[in-house]
UniProtKB/TrEMBL annotation:
Name of the protein described by the UniProt record: Cytochrome P450, family 2, subfamily AD, polypeptide 2
The species this protein was found in: Neolamprologus brichardi (Fairy cichlid)
Annotated Gene Ontology cellular component terms: endoplasmic reticulum membrane
Top-level division of the source organism's lineage: Eukaryota
GO process annotations (BP): organic acid metabolic process; xenobiotic metabolic process
SUPFAM superfamilies noted in UniProt: Cytochrome P450
PANTHER family according to UniProt: CYTOCHROME P450 508A4-RELATED, CYTOCHROME P450-RELATED
Cofactor(s), names only, from the UniProt record: heme
Membrane-topology annotation of the record: Peripheral membrane protein
Record keywords, A-Z: Endoplasmic reticulum, Heme, Iron, Membrane, Metal-binding, Microsome, Monooxygenase, Oxidoreductase, Transmembrane, Transmembrane helix
Amino acid sequence: MGFISSHVSSHSPKTFYPVPYKMYINAETSLLVIQYNILIGIALSNGYLWKKQRKFANTHLRYFGEGQKSLEKYIEVECSFLCEAFKEEQGRPFNPHYIMTNAIGNIIFSVVFGHRFEYSDPSFRRILELDNDAVVLAGSAQTQLYDAFPGLMKYLPGPHQTVHANYREIVAFLNREIEKHQEEWNPDDPRDFTDAYLSEMEKDPRAGFNIETLLVCTLDLIEAGTESASTTLRWALVFMMNYPEIQEKVQAEIDRVVGQSRLPTLADRPNLPYTDAVIHETQRFGNIVPLGFPKMANKDSTLGGYFIPKGTAVTTILSSVLFDKNEWETPDVFNPEHFLDSEGKFRRRDAFFKFKMSLIPLNVKLFSVTNTSQRVFGS
Ligand code: HEM
């Protein structure tokens, strides 16, 4: 399996030469770092602060993961709204992009801020569009140039300025939610992630629990959660359109196990192996985060025979694993059988570690396998 970039995957120990960390950070990331001068929150932070913030997020996303405020409940509620919105189209062709993004955004927003938005609400729709545009523009040539030469590029017009402007508006939107929470806050009755975070503030100054970090954490959760999951869902629709025979098998299994009178729940999952396999294959083949987040060794380390000096930035290339021909029977084909055994039961695959690298509250294993990263080298 390729943990690190393939152009260094030859023999015996080699050295990764340290370069300034910022040179390896992608455009979107460094725009944020430069604009807000932040290395706080979850996705962009380091060391002790990162560990504490990430642990808190994991614990509290799971805490609000039970009962009426559970993630599953929020998903269930949102599924009903989403199905209704699709029904309203009465079988006519329509673009589901922002209805789906809005639905996913609502789930994350409910956990983080305790409420959702109607699909017709222009304020949330605007935030989702700004975020989507910022992610797309972050890949533009000018933004990459800005990344390398911020001192010069900051005076020139171009998409990098739009990315800045978009994030300014998104951050202002999140800030208003946080201010409202501060006004209404009752420590005895935490309603959501933000209320729980407010209770944590000032307990451990080194861990950085303050309003500024909260703002960046909410941005991390909403941005990382919404874009990733809604893009995956859009790929799922594409695959179901392209492979109608697979779609029919999924529908038949759902009809048999769940029926038409209720929504599926997590408890149904073991009885839906084919559907589970199709979801996993969608994630593998969709490959929506081909490069993981960059990490930096915080002490001299050795990985796979390579010496990695302290301070070296390393990026995991997830595609190299998800399409590894030594791991998958038909790596370049959308094939749910990758996740099924000879009896049609769901089987886990070691080479599927997309989720173990990320922060999905439903997957309790996630923190144990981030060991290809900066944090791991030093922890
Ligand atoms: C299909 C859905 C998703 C995919 C494919 C995905 C993928 C990823 C990947 C590949 C990373 C980089 C991991 C690394 O390099 O260490 C990541 C990080 C992250 N994800 Fe996700 N993710 C998804 C959903 C979510 C959701 C729903 C949330 C929040 C509720 C979320 C929050 C985060 C955060 C905060 C990080 C940064 C973690 C850190 O740096 O410690 N993701 N995700």
